[in-house]
Design goal:
It is built from four helices and four strands. It has one domain (2-199). The protein has helices at 2-22, 36-46, 58-110, 126-199; strands at 48-50, 53-55, 116-119, 122-125. The protein is 80% helix and 7% strand. 2% of the residues are buried. It has 200 residues and is mainly α.
Length: 200
């Protein structure tokens, strides 16, 4: 009695698949929008049930897989760009530190000279020279603070992007494992049914 029922179910499944192929497949615009999680929820909700298993269309799971991989590529690209920007910011900060140190050393040397001396072919007082050097130091210090703040901000963005990438990769791995486990269980149940029918 179970063998004819199984044959009827298989015939209906094959007939449905053949009908979908003749019609060019089922259009599922929900799989082209929304988050990866929403897309997975959609295909699980819309999939057929066979006993305790969910039968998911291959084209649906492949489309969601493609979207997940595309999302991973975008996140990796953003992460690489952020890392490149971070390296540039570090180099700029280091350069500014060197310039501030150099100017500070020059200022210390100026303190020991006379009050008035020749500078760039003209006469210059110590106070004028000091004011000019300190103005440059202040400007460079402000620039250094700005780049340090930018660096910290980009570091936080990089960390957030890495966390999102890890989360997305974990979700993809979990989904693959669940899909593989469901497929193995379904194949095992189907084989058990076939073995029962052959033995019966």
């Amino acid at each position: 009695m179970k063998y004819p029922t199984l044959l009827i179910l298989l015939f209906i499944a094959f007939f449905t698949v053949a009908q979908e192929e003749n019609q060019g497949g089922i259009v599922q615009p929900e799989l082209d929008t929304g988050s990866i999680e929403n897309q997975f929820d959609y295909i699980i909700t819309k999939s057929s049930s066979f006993k305790e298993f969910q039968l998911i269309r291959r084209e649906s799971i492949l489309k969601v897989k493609k979207h997940a991989l595309d999302s991973l590529k975008i996140v990796r690209k953003e992460l690489n760009a952020s890392n490149s920007y971070k390296s540039n910011q570090e180099a700029t900060v280091e350069d500014l530190k060197n310039k501030v140190t150099s100017l500070q050393n020059k200022l210390d040397g100026v303190v020991q000279v006379k009050d008035e001396f020749t500078f760039l072919g003209g006469s210059c007082t110590k106070s004028t020279y000091n004011s000019m050097v300190w103005s440059i130091i202040v400007v460079l210090t402000i620039a250094l603070i700005f780049f340090v703040l930018q660096f910290k901000n980009n570091y936080a963005t990089t960390k957030k992007t890495k966390d999102e990438l890890n989360k997305l990769e974990d979700e993809l791995d979990q989904t693959k494992k669940k899909a593989l486990k469901k497929e193995q269980e379904l194949m095992r149940k189907l084989q058990d049914e076939l073995n029962k029918n052959h033995s019966g």
